[in-house]
Design a protein that fits this description.
The protein has 481 residues and is mainly β. The protein folds into two domains: 357 residues, TolB, C-terminal domain (Neuraminidase); 91 residues, Immunoglobulins (Immunoglobulin-like, Sandwich). The protein contains two helices and 34 strands. Strands 7, 8, 9, 10 and 11 form a five-stranded antiparallel beta sheet that branches. It is globular.
């Protein structure tokens, strides 16, 4: 059997490092966190802000989303009304989006399956505008504006569903490629699950279950109960949501079938007043809810309503209104506190107060975290397994990449990658059109790689050569019969 030859050197196969698309957070009133080092490190520069002088000193930034490349470097972020690039600049076509920054979950970014450069940005409107703009999406191409990204003008603010609640969540499909986007239609009890696939967004799977989402008093035309988070568990098996501004408040837990998009088995959870935040522990055994009284934990492992409610435990008193929650890539749950400090549930898998809540864990000054934490795909199950092609060509890196040629290309049996200088201990990774690794080799040294096709089928592949965690050369390989 033919092998990849690199002038007299032995080659071994390694696994790709964990994906880091959720490692940079932009949120709050100018708050930002980076998890690239393995712990949450605050930094400055975020342009996410609300307008607290508007409508009765009320409208802080709430819903937002951030997304990074597979190395953890920021690509873009959005508050539903604007989208900023990695330089904190509004993308050239990234203004006048039809989401609203005061919506609980104003924006959610999902990579387009089987693409390395396209992203869907889903947005929801807020109760202050009577939810009139509904659920919409725009498509961002990270290869536009010299690799800084831009919204494709012909695919901007496309309506999916009118009058949705301020709720979105996303779950990975078991096929390893597709992603479910789930929304809740206001004035109904209907969930709309849209399967995002390599060919586009499928018609929704609609499940009518649980409490009808409508208010008991006329606040913003009865839309006030649209407020509150909706989250999915990391394994995609559960969905939880809360309705605020209604008496009594509503908190519900559902089973979710990530194969079919159907919800079932509603469980009603005991509430206090004005529930707003909700999040699952990383092992999916605990559910946390925030309200005016504080943070509460439920053990949901039994699956039985009475048993679950009997485990309700108060973790801390109220520290913020409203108080969103977000699981981090480090397995901790982050809590908005309306100050320069963020609260952190350090051991969310543990029962009761042993979950170890720290109210003053991280100082994000000069940012302030009033009511905002970014939204991500549940469990950070992202499918874009590489840096976008246009960024991999050297735009993203601070070093000078290798000058290289690939010839012949297209090829049927073999091709040669020739570089202008010697590389040392490099890694070559080859991806297929779905972003999946089809070959990866380590400890490469020299100037020339002769690449034999072996059993790879015809198609277009991306080859990426890295040295000391820096991309030093990339190119497309075209295999023909």
């Amino acid at each position: 059997m033919k092998t990849l030859l690199l002038i007299f050197f032995t080659i071994t196969t390694t696994n790709l490092a964990a994906q880091k698309q959720g490692y940079t957070w932009m949120f709050g009133q100018g708050g930002a966190l980076s998890f690239i080092s393995g712990t949450a490190v605050p930094f400055s520069g975020s342009e996410v802000f609300g307008n607290p002088t508007q409508m009765g000193d009320f409208l802080y930034s709430e819903g937002c989303t951030s997304i990074s490349d597979s190395s953890g470097k920021l690509l873009f972020y959005s508050n539903g009304g604007k989208v900023w690039n990695k330089l904190n600049q509004v993308m050239p076509n990234g203004d006048s989006l039809m989401g609203f920054y005061s919506s609980t979950m104003a924006a959610l970014a999902i990579p387009a399956p089987a693409s390395n450069s396209l992203y869907y940005l889903f947005t929801t409107d807020g109760i202050e505008r009577y939810l009139q703009n509904g659920l919409r999406y725009s498509v961002i191409d990270m290869c536009l504006d010299n690799g800084k990204g831009d919204v494709i003008s012909s695919q901007k603010n496309i309506l999916l569903l009118d009058t949705v609640s301020e709720k979105l969540c996303a779950v990975a499909h078991p096929n390893g490629t597709d992603i479910w986007l789930i929304a809740h239609k206001h004035f109904t009890n209907s969930f709309y699950a849209y399967l995002v696939t390599p060919t586009g967004i499928n018609p929704p799977v609609i499940t009518s279950i649980g409490t009808v989402n409508t208010g008991s008093f006329n606040f913003y035309n009865g839309c006030a109960t649209a407020i509150g988070q909706m989250k999915a568990s990391s394994d995609g098996s559960k969905i939880g949501l809360v309705f605020s501004n209604v008496t009594p408040s509503v908190a519900e837990l559902f089973d979710f079938n990530s194969m079919t998009g159907v919800l079932s088995n509603v469980i009603s959870l005991q509430t206090n007043n004005n529930e707003y935040g909700i999040e699952f522990s990383p092992d999916n055994s605990k559910l946390y809810i925030t309200n005016l009284s504080g943070i509460f934990q439920f053990d949901i492992s039994s699956g039985l309503e009475a048993t679950i409610n009997s485990t309700k435990t108060q973790i801390t008193n109220a520290t913020c209104l409203p108080g969103p929650l977000q699981l981090g890539p480090d397995g901790k749950i982050y809590v908005a506190r309306c100050t320069n400090f963020m609260g952190v549930i350090n051991s969310p898998n543990n029962s009761g107060t042993s979950c170890n809540f720290d109210a003053n864990s991280i100082d994000i000054s000069p940012g302030v975290n009033n009511t905002s934490l970014p939204a991500f795909i549940a469990g950070f199950h992202y499918k874009n397994n590489q840096i976008p092609d246009c960024l991999a060509l050297g735009i993203e890196n601070d070093f000078e990449p290798l000058t290289h040629t690939i010839f012949p290309n297209p090829f049927s049996l073999w091709t040669t990658l020739q570089t202008d200088r010697i590389f040392k201990n490099a890694t070559l990774t080859v991806y297929n059109a779905f972003g999946q690794i089809v070959r990866q080799l380590n400890n490469l040294t020299g100037r020339t790689i002769i690449f034999y096709r072996d059993n790879l089928p015809c198609g277009i592949y991306l080859a990426r050569l890295e040295e000391d965690n820096n991309i030093i050369a990339t190119g497309k390989l075209i295999i023909t019969d």
